Amino acid sequence: MIKKTFLLLFTVFCCSPSLLAQKTGYWDKERATSKEIIVSARDRIIIKTEDLPIGTTEVVYRITLLDENQQMAGSLVSVLKSIPDPTGISQGSAGAVFILSKISGDDKCQYAIFSSNAAATTYQKTGSTTEACFLQETPLSKDAKRLSTDKSTCLQSNAIWFGFESKNWIMKQKIVLEVVPWVDYKLSRGWNASNRKNIIEQCKTSTMAQKMTNSDDFCVCVLDKIQNKYTHTEFQKLLKEERNKAFKDFGNSCFGESSVSNTTYADARKQASLLAKQGKHGEAITKLKMIINDGKGKVQDYNAIGTSYLLTKQYGKAIKFLQDGERLDDTELLIKLNLAHGYLLNDNYKSAKTIYKKYQNQNVTDSLSWVEKTKIDFETFQKLGIKSDDFERVLSLYN
């Protein structure tokens, strides 16, 4: 029988999923409330808890009515040491721990809980429980419950107010109130939903974020890094210049992560291609220059920007970017053909002729010949009003 009992307790405490889970917070015994109050017969009183620490997401409280000479058998704080997190109480994983007082008196009381001093004061004066966030109407000699931010409105401020009404019409009562807060590690740093949202909104106005079609992941990354390094109070105390530097440094770090930067540049390339097809070459050039200026330009980016410069009659700039692309890959014939176009349109027939002749018997892709691509490009130029007397001279070179 003893062995079976030990096995049961071992299973409850050592094998429970909630006990094995990583702790996300702690019971704050330093800021727990423990008060013994005498309530006169037929009287109402209110008791304010100690200020709840930043990051409080749960509280567990215990109320015990004692006879005159009774003492508590064990504090609530000591009991909660056996429970790793608040959910263990409601899920029964700490079934071997009885958080209710082992003793209590014969007296009973009603109580209500309030989230503001004003509501509690009204209750004390009038007995009104309209604004109570929790009400225990049935008189009890002991009670214990868990309140959480996701299921109760009682934790809206930095304290809780308990209101007690004695149901003893003759004798005074002795009530012991114990309240222990559970503090979430992450929230204890002061980063609530509102100020996290402010950081994300500020991040979205940054130059880096504006490069992206969707900057949500990037800004969440920046927020995480800020939260990990600073508490909210610490961050707010930084000088404006220091906060700006933090945004910049963390932004560079997040942007350098491949999942963010690769997506950003891939999106920019798609946008540039679409803009070019729509004839919006100026906007396409802006997108492509962003990629190239960030040092992420590929051969196709240089070819694309060179093409857009040619089609907007900016031949000198086209030649410059096409030469840069040629240095990246000297075998890319699309770059070389566009470079020949650039020389031709920039009145340098001699340099253009050398390139046109050199590659005339090759293909620029697996299915398109150099000669056919030249003809297609010349037709495109003419449709856009880009004319040259040398177009025919070039085509005659191929005969």
Automatic annotation (TrEMBL):
Report the leader peptide range: 1-21
Top-level taxon in the UniProt lineage: Bacteria
Which keywords does UniProt give here?
Signal
UniProt cross-references to InterPro entries, sorted A to Z? TPR-like_helical_dom_sf
Mind telling me what this protein is named?
Tetratricopeptide repeat protein
Query: What organism, scientifically named, is this protein from?
Result: Flavobacterium polysaccharolyticum
